[in-house]
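To illustrate the input format used throughout this study, we show a single complete record. The first block contains the structure-token representation of the backbone; no residue identities are included at this stage. The design step must infer an amino acid for every position from geometry alone.
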């Protein structure tokens, strides 16, 4: 009856995992070397890109891993809700805005993951150009595509059950496609 007072036993795990995803997405190399715009939208795209890959890997695990993936996504939505409120969006508009962000996430997830799973580098580059660089074929698109391919391969080698405990390993984004 009083479930609102019951603490989520995985709360610390969800915070740790979401924190690791955010930390990777905020790595300065993405903005300095990859050319992702260091703007609210650019940072959101970098976050969604990483969240999509982690979410995909968790979705391949057992029911517990899938539940953690859902809780991490819920944490992302809560984070977006908090940011929108901090930006002065009215209480009446926040839910609609969060639904829009969630829809954008699932659109990106579908585009990135289908391209990564199919090994379709052209489709991946198109998705990156469209989403991260607002339709511009930026010079760093191939570098970001290479990073995403290596990241998904690295995540595929990690057990979803281990990731579900809050332990995720990301590659160093620095060396991909450097000339």
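Output of the design step:
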């Amino acid at each position: 009856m009083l479930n609102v007072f019951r603490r989520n036993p995985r709360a610390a795990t969800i915070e740790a995992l979401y924190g690791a995803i955010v930390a990777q997405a905020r790595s300065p190399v993405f903005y300095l070397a990859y050319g992702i715009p260091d703007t609210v939208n650019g940072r959101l795209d970098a976050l969604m890109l990483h969240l999509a890959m982690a979410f995909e890997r968790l979705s391949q695990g057992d029911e517990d891993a899938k539940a953690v993936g859902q809780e991490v996504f819920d944490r992302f939505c809560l984070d977006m809700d908090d940011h929108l409120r901090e930006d002065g969006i009215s209480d009446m508009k926040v839910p609609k805005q969060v639904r829009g962000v969630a829809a954008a996430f699932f659109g990106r997830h579908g585009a990135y993951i289908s391209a990564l799973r199919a090994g379709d580098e052209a489709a991946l580059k198109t998705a990156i150009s469209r989403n991260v660089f607002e339709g511009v074929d930026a010079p760093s698109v191939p570098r970001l595509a290479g990073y995403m391919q290596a990241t998904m391969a690295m995540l595929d080698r990690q057990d979803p059950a281990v990731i579900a405990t809050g332990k995720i390993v990301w590659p160093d984004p620095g060396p991909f496609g450097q000339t």
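Structural context for interpreting the output: The radius of gyration is 16 Å. The CA atoms of residues 72 and 144 lie 24 Å apart.
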